[in-house]
Amino acid sequence: KQPPLDFDPFGDVNEHCGDPMADDHKPVRVLLMKLYQTEMQCVPGSPEHFEVMQMINGCRRNIGLEEGITEQEISQAELDKIAGDAGISTDLLNKRLDKESNRQHFDKSGNVKIGDEHLKNKAYGIGQVRQPALDDINADYGTNFTVKDLQNPAKNAKIAALYLKLARDKYASKFAPGKDPEAYANLAYQYGPDVPQDLIKNLPDAVKK
What is the largest CA-CA distance in the chain? Predict the structure, then answer.
């Protein structure tokens, strides 16, 4: 099985000779030493740290070493910051991520969770984000997120938060006037902007300022 991201810097190297110290593996060993140094300089749990860990595991796998680093779930402190940066409540983000993935980016085997496998555009990770949501976010916020970014738990959660913000700020007044915009955004994440009216009518009213 291929890893979700391609971290093979030397081409399609998917087999090894059985000896990690073989001369053929020297370039990868040199790269590993550099990656270990880079990893020590990264903030644990950050997107950069996650990507470096993925690269380290890919290199170790390619030369026959066991993968020495366990994938780490995103912390609540990081989710709090992501929600704050997006301008939504932590409660909204947590509630949606709980519904989508039990707030877990990886499955029991350490692979990124994949949903909607029957669809052309599958859903990935903690936010179960699909390509159409990426397209909406990129169009509205001028970002350039790709499906590859969904493999990273911090980026995945950020994208989920931005979609909730988009639903709240752009669509709530149109599709759920007078209703709590964050409660609407939570449903719009699942159903799209045009949430069924029988669900809209049961939303709490917006708090008058």
Answer: 71
Residues 6+ apart with CB under 8 A from 73: 103, 104, 105, 106, 126, 153
Residue whose C-alpha is closest to residue 159's, from 98, 83, 100, 101 = 83
In 3D, which of 22, 27, 23 has the Cα closest to residue 8? Answer: 27
pLDDT tens sequence across 50-68: 888 888 888 878 877 666 5
Q: Are 161 and 93 in contact (CB under 8 A)?
A: yes
Q: Is 104 exposed, middle or buried (0-12, 13-18, 19+ CB in 10 A)?
A: middle
Token look-up 């190297």 returns: 13
User: Tell me, what DSSP letter sits at residue 176?
Assistant: S
* Tens digit of each residue's pLDDT (9 = 90 or more) over 68-108: 545 578 889 999 999 999 999 999 999 999 999 999 998 87
What token pair was written down for 186? 């939570």
Pairing verdict, β 114-115 and 123-124: antiparallel
Locate all alpha helices (DSSP H) within 14-149, ordered by sequence.
Answer: 26-41, 47-62, 76-86, 90-101, 131-141
